[in-house]
Design goal:
Blueprint: E1 7-10, H1 14-21, E2 28-30, H2 44-60, E3 67-77, E4 80-82, H3 88-98, E5 102-113, E6 118-130, H4 135-145, E7 164-168, H5 172-176, H6 180-189
């Protein structure tokens, strides 16, 4: 039996690391060292796909025989891009803006192997309908959850689920940051035992 190539997750996200661990494949983690910038006239979904591929390619340049996974998530509500808030004040402001609205979370995943050449990407879009939130609920959520490293200040895998009316998704892991249904199928195609 052929042993599959070394697998690397091109990410600094603890959430993506925890998600990939669910597939029970051996992997290492490497920081892609990229600035996550927005290009002119680029849609949120295009940005997510571009950055996922760029992260995978940046790490693959240093590991030509490895299989590298890159992922990126861009959240948007209307014309607003929902970045990671970084602090409590911005988190409260984002959630006040999201109250009673719908946001789209575009999560892209790319898998790259330089030698022999392989490249594939996928986009998962999840629609999150937020219920009307009071300022007290927002304050309580931000104090308890501290979602400062999450797009839109929204952490569905924890208390954030209580902020929603409904979530429409083909892959619930995509909303957390790494669409495992597509990724598992792609890794199986490359010879990894999943499950």
């Amino acid at each position: 039996m052929t042993v599959p190539a070394r697998l690397i997750l091109a990410s600094t996200s603890r959430y993506r690391r925890m998600l990939l661990e669910r597939l029970s494949v051996e992997f290492s983690v490497e920081d892609p060292g990229l600035e996550e910038t927005h290009a002119a006239r680029e849609s949120p979904s295009e940005r997510a796909v571009r950055l996922a591929m760029a992260k995978a390619q940046a790490v693959a340049e240093h590991h030509p025989r490895a299989v590298v996974i890159g992922s990126d998530q861009v959240a948007a509500a209307g014309r607003s891009i929902l970045e990671k808030p970084g602090d409590a004040a911005r988190a409260r402001a984002q959630l006040a803006e999201l109250s009673g609205t719908t946001a789209l979370f575009h999560t892209a995943c790319a898998v790259v192997r330089p030698t022999p050449p392989f490249s594939a990407s996928h986009l998962d879009t999840t629609r999150v309908v937020f219920r009307r939130l009071t300022s007290e609920e927002i304050e309580r959520y931000v104090d308890r959850e501290r979602p400062f490293d999450c797009a839109g200040s929204f952490k569905v895998e924890a208390l954030g689920i209580g902020l929603t009316e409904r979530i429409e998704s083909e892959d619930p892991t995509g909303l957390i940051g790494l669409p495992l249904i597509w990724l598992a199928a792609t890794l199986r195609g490359l010879g990894y035992e999943v499950p």
